[in-house]
Fold:
Amino acid sequence: MAMLSQDAIKALGFLSAGENLQISDRASFYGVNRIALGNNVRIDDFCVLSAGLGGISIGDYVHIAVYSSLIGGGKIELSDFCNISSRVSIYSSNDDYSGGAMTNPTVPDEYTNVTHADVFLDRHVIVGSGSVILPGVTLEEGVAIGALSLINKHCKAFGIYAGNPARRIKERKRDLLSIERCFTARNAG
Structure:
């Protein structure tokens, strides 16, 4: 995986771009002027970030693994220490599947009925490989999503969720919060 230089990243025209970014030269960005990147962010090969009017905001120490996509007109926010595994899809827009409107981006807006809703992933969220997160969902702090899950509802803090649609299956340990404090203290000086 070849990574873009820091100068090449700055030249792309992100809304903001932090320090120590690792971005694959095979990742794709649309609406780049509406994408904000924190510090220590890694975006792997074949990821697609397509920011609509709501934009995409990525915090510090965030990893987005291969073939993942963040797409839509609503805002998508990934808070600090989020980990997005491979082939995860996060959507902040949705077509009308009822047949009451046409679908797809080649059709003019007046013939479609696309809805938009913000998606928020709080600190320390991890999303397992192949999962899909639908518009309007909030994943609270410390949520863990099992592989191949469909997330269509809010997920409460430090729950482990899995399935299609996902349901809460158990509690996640909070040890990572004290580990974060040690990590942050070590890196503060």
